[in-house]
Amino acid sequence: MMSDFCTVLHSLNSPQNVGMIVRSHVAHGGSEVVFIGHELPWQFKKGSQSFSRKLEKQAKIIHLPNPDDVFEWCMANSYTPVAIEIAEQTSLLNQFTFPEKTALILGNEADGLPASFIKKCTHVVTIPQYGPVGSLNVAVSASVAMYELRRGDTPWAIARDEYETLL
């Protein structure tokens, strides 16, 4: 059975990033996309839509101006808040087991998630990086996390000898 997940975007500003995240969200079978931290709902204009391919029409969009309201929303909808962030006391993405219903929470392009907000998340997960780069782009991070969440849903594994016959 596939895990259910929603994507929570905290104070994102880039239409391109939002568009790419929504596209990945729909491609990975996500449920709601929740925008938090903006007074007004996100407007999907040409900048976002050129990257989302208008797939936001296939996602349920939710707007919560107050970021802290997302925790009550998660509880009411049985989602477990999982922040994707570079922080202390985190789990590594490649070793993390996602909850049955996950709220993937991603922060602002420049500032990430506020420390006070991170403390309220049930889990904080970091994507391991191996090169001399400070952080990944938020849309890339979202896509990697969604892929890893879905990869855990795969009920089978291919044996090494079977893999080699495919090469």
TrEMBL record:
Top-level division of the source organism's lineage: Bacteria
UniProt KW keywords: Methyltransferase, Transferase
Pfam family, one: SpoU_methylase
Residues in the signal sequence: none
Domain tRNA/rRNA methyltransferase SpoU type: residue ranges: 7-147
One term of GO molecular function: RNA methyltransferase activity
GO biological process per UniProt: methylation; RNA processing
Protein name (database record): tRNA/rRNA methyltransferase SpoU type domain-containing protein
Native organism: Spartinivicinus marinus
